[in-house]
Amino acid sequence: GEDVEQSLFLSVREGDSSVINCTYTDSSSTYLYWYKQEPGAGLQLLTYIFSNMDMKQDQRLTVLLNKKDKHLSLRIADTQTGDSAIYFCAEKYSSASKIIFGSGTRLSIRP
Amino acid sequence: SQTIHQWPATLVQPVGSPLSLECTVEGTSNPNLYWYRQAAGRGLQLLFYSVGIGQISSEVPQNLSASRPQDRQFILSSKKLLLSDSGFYLCAWSVGDHGYTFGSGTRLTVV
Question: What is the mean pLDDT of residues B86-108?
Answer without folding.
Answer: 90
